[in-house]
Design a protein that fits this description.
With 127 residues, this protein is an alpha+beta fold. The protein contains four helices and four strands. The protein has two domains: 60 residues; 49 residues, no CATH class. Strand 3 and strand 4 form a beta hairpin.
Length: 127
């Protein structure tokens, strides 16, 4: 990594910390800017740069798989395995659809209670 890029990342991290500090303290932007002796224009410039960086970072960590399903580039989170989905014609739509971390879990009415309980416990342990 080049020195210029490291400097940019350090600066962005400091700006993000400053913005989070202001938010945590519940101070109005104008009052915080006066306290830190920076202009409103500077504050909003920094806020915009931090947001742009956050969006770029999120884009680098994720890829679009299909439609609105997004998974991390490394694949499924540890402890999860992708199972083939068997679609049978004539079955009703799933009774429950859970969307979490880009994954989709569909539970139909024929699923056994024990299977549902174990699945939800495993999902809860990731939260």
């Amino acid at each position: 990594m080049k020195v210029k890029e490291i400097t940019r990342q350090v600066r962005l991290r400091q700006w993000a910390d400053d913005i989070n500090e202001r938010l945590a303290r519940g101070v109005k932007v104008r009052d915080w800017c006066e306290e830190k002796q920076i202009s409103l224009k500077t504050y909003y410039y920094r806020l915009r740069r931090v947001r742009e960086s956050a969006i770029a970072d999120a884009s680098e960590r994720q890829i679009l798989i299909a439609g609105d399903t997004i998974l991390p580039k490394g694949g499924l989170p540890s402890g999860f395995a992708e199972l083939p989905v068997e679609r049978h014609s004539g079955h009703a739509a799933p009774a429950i659809v859970l969307r979490y971390m880009g994954g989709i879990l569909e539970i139909n009415n024929e699923a056994e209670q024990g299977t549902i309980e174990k699945t939800l416990l495993a999902l809860a342990s990731t939260c």
